[in-house]
Specification:
This protein is mainly α. 51% of the residues lie in helices and 11% in strands. The protein contains ten helices and six strands; from the N terminus they run ααβααββαβααββααα. The strands form two sheets. Strands 1-3-2 form a three-stranded antiparallel sheet. Strands 4-6-5 form a three-stranded antiparallel sheet. α2 crosses α4. The radius of gyration is 20 Å and the shape is elongated. InterPro entries: MAGE (IPR037445), MAGE_WH1 (IPR041898), MAGE_WH2 (IPR041899), MHD_dom (IPR002190). This is MAGE domain-containing protein.
Length: 240
């Protein structure tokens, strides 16, 4: 899901806000809804990195071209994607005027130095890495980290559309910023390496907050994708 949503976010970065207006009540093709979602995923990070508020009125005017009837579903899906991929949470600060602010998820500030024209926020990937470390006894072997990322389409040696080259991001950028530790496993020969939480990760968030976030995402996913039937689950296990 993270990989798929990241591709949507990347396509949004390259697309222009060109959805044409459709009269209220007129049928809107799925492709048009998908384009509106992609455009909104581009628009919201721009406002976040510019440290600006936005509103329903602004979104309708600049992104959805006054297609008010489609606002709830498009806004909900785009906000969920933004939280999962970019680590940015959309909060309503004025329910009467429907004004929104974007804040870093779990308090992580790794994107605060990005400019509005520089890059997509990447805190969502950092949350994933921190959770992998937790699930592996607070020290995740790098082969497990690279394996998990590759299943999401984030591969070492390849430049990802949203996250860039993952080895550089994880072993240099986030290590220098203090979010991760990357060190050799003691007494390993040939040398093996592992990831740990860095001091800045401990300062900005907590394991309890990360776990609560993961449970929230899992609950949403279970609602969106109902449990497989017994037969389908058996076929999936056999295929695996």
């Amino acid at each position: 899901l993270l990989g798929a949503e990241a591709e949507v976010a990347a396509s949004a970065s390259a697309s222009s806000l060109t959805v044409s207006s459709v009269a209220t009540g007129e049928f809107l093709p799925p492709e048009a809804l998908k384009e509106m979602k992609a455009n909104l995923i581009k628009f919201l990070p721009f406002k976040y990195l510019a440290k600006e508020l936005t509103s329903q009125a602004e979104i309708l005017k600049k992104v959805l071209r006054d297609n008010q009837e489609h606002f709830p579903v498009v806004f909900s899906q785009a906000s969920h994607c933004l939280e999962l991929v970019c680590g940015v949470e959309v909060k309503e600060v004025d329910p009467r005027e429907h004004i929104y602010i974007m804040v870093p998820n779990l308090g992580l500030t790794c994107d605060v130095m990005l400019s509005s024209a520089q890059s997509m926020p990447k805190a969502g990937l950092l949350v994933l890495i921190l959770s992998l470390i937790m699930q592996n006894g607070d020290r995740a072997p790098e082969e497990k980290v690279w394996g998990a990322l590759s299943r999401l389409g984030v591969c070492v040696g390849s430049v990802h559309c949203v996250f860039g080259e993952p080895r550089t991001l994880l072993t240099h950028v986030w290590v220098q910023e203090g979010y991760l530790e990357y060190r050799q496993v003691p007494y390993s020969y040939p040398a093996r390496y592992e990831f740990l939480w860095g001091p800045r990760a401990y300062a900005e968030t907590s394991k309890r907050e990360v776990m609560a976030f993961l449970l929230r995402i899992k609950e949403r996913a279970s609602r969106a994708f109902p449990p497989l039937s017994a037969e389908a689950a058996r076929e999936e296990d056999e295929a695996a």
